[in-house]
Design a protein that fits this description.
With about 325 residues, the chain is mostly helical. The chain has helices at about 1-35, 65-80, 95-100, 110-120, 125-130, 135-140, 145-165, 170-175, 185-195, 205-210, 220-230, 235-250, 275-280, 300-305.
């Protein structure tokens, strides 16, 4: 009897131990699974910004493909700069032709800060033609090369008075006969004072159309012909504004802000400048960088889009780009 009781007790203990063993193992498995699923304490790495793949036109790009690519870039720029306009202040063709001549080797901002005094004293070609050169030089001194510019604007005014009845002519062949007026200046006047299409092939325009591989020409007249063939004449004036705005604000000569460029995916030259988005933002100029624009009296569309007018001469606005840089 005693032996049987002992055997029965031993059997019960063994059964109890057997039942308990799986529970212990299950508990360890749960703990291991919990550790695996627990979030890591190490900080998560920031996702790298998506890389822009620059456009690479084929070597043997057809004329049709080039036209499509060029027009697409212009459409994109039109969306970025819907307020693009001539950045020289003017109220009539005479003021525009004089301001354009004065803009050589300086900024439109500096010209706009200087011309109010000039036009207040000499409002017509007849007035400026009869001006004392020394007095004109003193007014134009801030624009640089003021002696040569004084000679040009007085000579131009005399030609208008003597050969064109005091009126600025509206034909290319007549405009280029005026002292200091070349094709670039003539097209600025024709496009913006007379509404006649023209391409303004300035330094910005030349630089950008070569970067975009619209042409490899270097002479302004050849660039004008090559780019003009890619667009309808009706688009030439606004195309000039779009390209020049982009060249001044983002696609700079020395350090383009590639990382902040809205047409980077379309640009064969992407990577020539700063590609880091944050560093590129610091390179933006004028209203794209939150700075004043170049006109004292800009168009309403520019103001509606958040543009800031330039300060008058002698009253620089804090944070504005240094005069003499574009």
């Amino acid at each position: 009897m005693a032996a049987s009781a002992k055997k029965a007790a031993s059997a019960r203990k063994a059964a109890a131990a057997k039942k308990a063993a799986p529970k212990k193992t299950a508990k360890k498995s749960v703990e291991k699974a919990a550790k695996k699923s627990a979030p890591s304490k190490a900080p998560a790495k920031k996702a790298a910004p998506a890389k822009v793949t620059p456009a690479k036109p084929p070597r043997n790009e057809s004329h049709t493909a080039l036209v499509r690519r060029a027009r697409r870039i212009n459409r994109e720029l039109a969306e970025v700069y819907p307020y693009a306009h001539p950045e020289l202040d003017f109220e009539n063709p005479f003021q525009l032709v004089i301001a354009t001549v004065l803009s050589a080797q300086t900024t439109d901002l500096r010209v706009n800060q200087t011309t109010p005094a000039l036009f207040a004293k000499y409002p017509t070609p007849e007035d400026l033609a009869a001006a004392n050169p020394e007095e004109v030089e003193e007014i134009l001194r801030p624009t640089g090369f003021f002696r040569a510019k004084t000679k040009s604007v007085i000579g131009l005014s005399k030609a208008l008075r003597d050969d064109f009845g005091g009126e600025v002519p509206g034909r290319l062949e007549d405009l280029v006969k005026l002292p200091g007026v070349g094709r670039k200046t003539a097209f600025v006047v024709l496009g913006n004072a007379f509404g006649r299409p023209g391409l303004t092939v300035d330094t910005h325009f030349q630089r950008l159309v070569r970067r975009w591989q619209w042409t490899d020409a270097k002479e302004p007249d050849k660039i004008e012909a090559a780019v003009g063939a890619l667009f309808p004449k009706s688009e030439w004036t606004m195309l000039s504004h779009h390209v020049i705005f982009h060249g001044r604000r983002i696609c700079h000569a020395r350090k383009p802000a590639c990382g902040a460029c809205p047409i980077a995916p379309l640009c064969p030259a992407y990577g020539e400048g700063e590609t880091d988005p944050e560093k590129a933002k610091k390179l933006l100029k004028y209203e794209k960088g939150g700075f004043p624009g170049q006109r004292l009296n800009p168009p309403q569309a520019y103001l509606d889009a958040g543009g800031i007018p330039a300060p008058p001469l002698g009253a620089p606005m804090p944070g504005s780009p240094p005069v003499g840089t574009e």
